[in-house]
Specification:
Layout (H helix, E strand, L loop, with lengths): L2 H12 L9 H18 L5 H15 L3 H4 L1 H24 L1
Helix pairs in contact: 1-2, 1-3, 3-5
Amino acid sequence: MDMKALQLFLLPWLRVDTWHTRHPNDEERFHQALHVTFKELGYTITYEQFYDAIHKVIAERQPGHELHRIKSIEGYARRAEVIGYYLFDVRNCQ
């Protein structure tokens, strides 16, 4: 897994300070970032890889904020992994 590429693909969502609010615009950016991520890197990205990438981007962009956003990072990493597994299953069941 190319961790730098994963971070880069998630950046359009994470660079907006409200990334964690579940506002419809933030959700749209999240899904768009995942669309590009899965297109470029495949569907089998693990929770740990998503967690590490999100954590690193937030730590670089807003030092210290990653400590206050652990639950959000965990939640989005889990959602991203589940979406990837779903897309993998759908693609392989056709």
